[in-house]
């Protein structure tokens, strides 16, 4: 049975910013001839790893709302320079825009059951174009439109 992970996307204010950040990482990885997969390091290795690897995704909370996801490819046990153990959540670099769902702040990551996960938006190209266009709006206007359910 599949389970997803959900994490705060710290330092990112929009789906458009997440896309641009990921594109820049991909350019650097191509230039360095490294694999085109992204990863996020976390201190805790999921106890439900088998379920996460059974089609799970990493959902990102951006400004208090689940807004996008990446398909998880694998979970690697890694160490930092001091030998501290970490879990590298390795995921496909493709940003998938989801329906927007409110989510309170939390630390680390949490499990997200399949039934609670927001659906992907049907037309990803249009969703990404819209995300880029929304970024041009003033932040307070974007927040108000989201509150009204218009974004």
From TrEMBL:
It comes from the Bacteria. This is DUF1489 domain-containing protein. It comes from Dongia rigui.
């Amino acid at each position: 049975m599949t389970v997803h992970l959900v994490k705060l996307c710290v330092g990112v204010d929009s789906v458009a910013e997440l896309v641009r950040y990921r594109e820049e990482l991909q350019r650097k990885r191509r230039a360095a001839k490294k694999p085109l997969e992204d990863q996020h390091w976390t201190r805790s290795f999921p106890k439900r790893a088998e379920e996460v690897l059974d089609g799970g995704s990493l959902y990102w909370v951006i400004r208090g709302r689940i807004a996008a996801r990446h398909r998880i490819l694998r979970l690697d046990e890694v160490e930092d320079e001091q030998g501290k153990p970490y879990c590298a959540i390795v995921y496909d670099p493709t940003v998938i825009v989801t329906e927007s769902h409110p989510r309170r702040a939390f630390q680390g990551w949490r499990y997200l059951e399949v039934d609670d996960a927001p659906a992907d938006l049907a037309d990803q190209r249009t969703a990404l174009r819209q995300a880029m266009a929304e970024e041009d709006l003033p932040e307070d206007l974007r927040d108000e439109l989201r509150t009204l359910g218009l974004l």
